[in-house]
TrEMBL record:
Superkingdom, taxonomy of origin: Bacteria
Gene3D superfamilies on file: 3.40.50.2300
EC number in record: 1.20.4.4
Record domain Phosphotyrosine protein phosphatase I: where: 7-142
Keyword Oxidoreductase: yes
Name recorded for this polypeptide: Arsenate reductase ArsC
Organism of provenance: Thalassospira aquimaris
């Protein structure tokens, strides 16, 4: 169900290294400056090399992103927080007890759990990217979808 684009969106997951970084880059790509977009994790970790590779495949560069935690956010208020892991969901709910902020849980597969060849792992990350892309376009449509 499509809704109006919020003024600010925070994507959050466990490490701010794969899912939330991909989601923020995709929402920025589709909606530019129409909304403020940020991402964070319960813990900070370096942006995952496989995430960088699969986002590069669709022309989005996340290689310079600096991972951050909830506590490192410069802006503590968001209109919408979208969590992508149960751990981030719990943290977001705790954080928003005293603020008017919607929290949505998008249970998103963790591609880092896949082991095997480089190609098998890349395919898992592509599935995560494409799942997030579909959720974003379903939730925040842009009219005729740009080809990415």
């Amino acid at each position: 169900m499509a809704e109006e684009l919020p003024g600010s969106v925070l994507f959050a997951c466990s490490y701010n290294a794969v899912r939330s970084v991909m989601a923020a880059a995709l929402l920025r790509h589709y909606h530019g400056t129409r909304t403020y977009v940020e991402s964070c994790g319960v813990r900070a970790g370096d942006v995952d090399g496989f995430a960088i590779a699969v986002m590069d495949e669709i022309g989005l560069d996340i290689s310079n992103y600096k991972s951050k935690t909830f506590d490192q956010l410069e802006d503590g208020f968001f209109d919408l927080i979208i969590t992508m892991s149960p751990e981030a969901q719990h943290r977001a709910v705790d954080m928003t007890r005293t603020m008017a902020c919607d929290v949505e849980f998008w249970n998103t597969f963790d591609g880092t759990m896949i082991e095997g060849s480089r190609e098998a792992r890349l395919e898992a990350y592509r599935q995560v990217r494409d799942q997030i892309k579909k959720r974003i376009l379903d939730r925040f449509p842009v009219g005729p979808a740009p080809k990415v």
